[in-house]
Amino acid sequence: MRFPSAMEKYNNTVVEFILVGFTTDPVMQLVLFVIFLTVYAITVLGNSTLIVLICNDFRLHTPMYFFIGNLSFLDLGLSTVYTPKILVTCISEDKSISFAGCVAQFFFSAGLGYTECYLLAAMAYDRYMAISKPLLYSQSMSLKLCAFFVAASYLGGLINSFIITKDTFSLTFCSDNVIDDFFCDIPPLVKLACGKKGSFQSVLFFLLASNVIIPIVFILASYLFIIATILRIRSTQGRLKAFSTCSSHLISVTLYYGSILYIYARPRSSYSLDRDKIVSTFYTVVFPMLNPLIYSLRNKDVKEALNKLFK
């Protein structure tokens, strides 16, 4: 593991960063390598299988599964942005990542993450239409509208990712270039930066509001209308059936937004990089593995499509 020399340490031009990772213990690094490799294999298999099922089975050609398929694609990309580098860091003595590599990882991870925020909000609207206006659902949630929601999610995610990437790497890194994390993220990078950070914090709070807070408000509003509709259903069985159609999405939203808000919405004084590593691991590596399970284990249509594929 190579640390910066005295000349590099106080040079304003950083050419590479050093990713500390989780531990320097060789045995634990090997254990973590096996764990992350297993999680990544399950993530790739689960999300790829779900995408194939949705594409091949006509029963899954509905707005809800159109969004789930795109969510699986995002999770596949998000996991691929992080995990291969984590695996290399675990087994290699070279913990460095080039400045350009750090920028690329940051840009794609932020773009995919922001896109997922918007997509989860679009899925909340889809659930609202399915439960509140079931007779008009197929007509209202047309393929054209669904494609627009997905395209707008990607566009918004990439634009905001470009803004935050540009502002983050415009900071002056004149301290250690050792990142106390397993990937290039905002808290450890800001900790390394020196000079004026006030304008950057303003941009960060703006992006947090536009990419996280506004989608959360939209999701909460959708679920308030959903709950109001469910309460008007007279039979208990009907209420349970209506709620079950959005329970998977609700679990997904809670886990994803909860971890993001924990990392980025707290005051800087309360940052704990060791604790944040665990939470970051959840939404960057573990969450993409859980999504296929969340949307398929209790889903009859997906189980039938899987049985049909195997047969």
From TrEMBL:
Give the membrane topology: Multi-pass membrane protein
Q: Name one GO cellular component term.
A: plasma membrane
The yes or no answer to whether the keyword Transferase is present is no
Q: Which one of the record's GO molecular function terms can you name?
A: G protein-coupled receptor activity
- The residues covered by the G-protein coupled receptors family 1 profile domain are 46-295
Q: Could you identify this protein by its name?
A: Olfactory receptor
Q: Which family does it belong to?
A: Belongs to the G-protein coupled receptor 1 family.
What residue ranges are annotated as transmembrane?
30-53, 65-83, 103-125, 145-164, 205-231, 243-265, 277-297
Name of the gene encoding the protein in the UniProt record: LOC100757426
- Main location per UniProt? membrane
Q: Which organism is it from?
A: Cricetulus griseus (Chinese hamster)
Compartments annotated for it: namely:
Cell membrane
* Keywords per UniProt: Cell membrane, G-protein coupled receptor, Membrane, Olfaction, Receptor, Sensory transduction, Transducer, Transmembrane, Transmembrane helix
